[in-house]
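Possible regression after last week's pipeline update?

I re-ran a chain I had predicted before the update to compare outputs. Posting the input and the new output here so someone can diff against the archived version. Not blocking, just want to make sure nothing changed silently.
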Amino acid sequence: MFSNARAQSQDTLWADAGLTDIKPLQIGDKIPEELWYLPLQIVNHPDRKNTMTLNDYRGKLIILDFWATWCGSCIANMPKVSKLQEELGDEVQVLLITKEKLPKVDQFFKRNPFSPISVVNDETFNRLFTHLSIPHYSIINKQGTIQAITSSDQITTDNIRRILDDRTAEVTVKIDRDTKSPLLTTSNLPLDRLSHHSALFEGRLDGFPSSVDQREYGNVVGVSYTNMALAKLFKAVFRKLYPNLNDKRFLFESGDSTKFFYPVHNTISSKQEWYKKNLYSYEVLVKNVKSNDIFKNMLNDLNNHTQFSGILTTRKRRCIQLVFRKKSNSYGKDTGMINGQQKSFEDIPVENLVSYLDDSPQIPFPVINGINSPKKVNVTITSKFENLEDIRKQLNKQGLDLIDVLAEIPVFVISQKQ
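New output (post-update):
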């Protein structure tokens, strides 16, 4: 009967056995009657039988051990299951299951004298007891119900005895993952044990907004940027790593700017095409104790995996320097009425005034300090001035000036790699 069945296709065999409507089996499911009587081709039977059915062992606790001759972990575990079979005797039946053909499996057992029987050339059990990796174990109790689906470390004499004695067995359910997929695309990973992860995607990711999100999973923290131009990603790194420098020190030095910045003058349709190709998404996760490394890692990834790189260096740039006004005898005294809201710098470090001016968008160039002494100033200016000339006039009245200079200053330089 078996030889006739084997000559049929697997689907035909399933149809003849009445298994076509049976879904993959889970813990708690009863073994279908049809499966008990399905003919199985076997090797390594102690009585040299070539065929059998699962029904031959009905009433015993059956351990299905899915394996392959190329699986080192499967073979390494065989001495343990062989010993378990010998210790528990007639109460338990270990049944190996493999998709491999009879000749190959037969040669394996001639070289490796393990005791369990093995089903060969299988498709049925592999389809009904679904799994992504081996070794894989399904335990069928004496009542014909799937008691556990687990991994090799759970196949212990103590656990099996507990099941035989109808006691609660602490058998961990095997988490089966697709090993061909990236780790962080699989579900239910123990993210609290993650040491480091980063991912960079090129091109717009549909279904995600353009946003920044903080990440926290137990002792793992991180940040995620989705659908942003490279300019925004590099600028985010620059601001976090160098908080004392403002965007006037962020310099795009060379390269194709249309690959780096949003196209300001493009039409809506052409902008959408640009988004598809030139937006990026990035995520980095690290242990909480390494949270200071988040943006260092991000800069390394952007430098290594995009066509641009950013580095902190110095450049001679046009700057606006705060100095004493020439021929002035009235430093720090307001010699004229100031209209509008006032901002007073009373006996504070000169650098505070320089920082205020430097951060003002009305001054398009970096502002640097050219005053060595006194170290503090008393100045009153409008809190919102219109332009550089406006603030210069106000400072002139108080003995200070803003002059154009070329100076070596720290800048964060972006350039396209050759």
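Follow-up from reviewer: compared with the archived run. Confidence is low (pLDDT under 50) at residues 1-8, 333-337. Marking as no regression found.
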